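My current task is to audit a protein record that another person submitted. I need someone to confirm that the token line plausibly describes how this chain folds. Take the sequence as given and treat only the tokens as open to question. This is what I was given:
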Amino acid sequence: MRPEILRLVIGLAVTGALLLAYARLVNSWLWSALAGFLALLIAVALVAVVAAEGLGALP
């Protein structure tokens, strides 16, 4: 895996983990749901980047 892709994957993973921690910490159900949804979107983006790298689709 190229270094720039690895940095992207690590950055997405850290951001997703922080959002999940925030979702568990906050008291409002609305903010918790929003943070969880954003973490889910980041996880989908992470899977897409790793799959594209694994298939060789990225230049």
The chain has a mean pLDDT of 91.
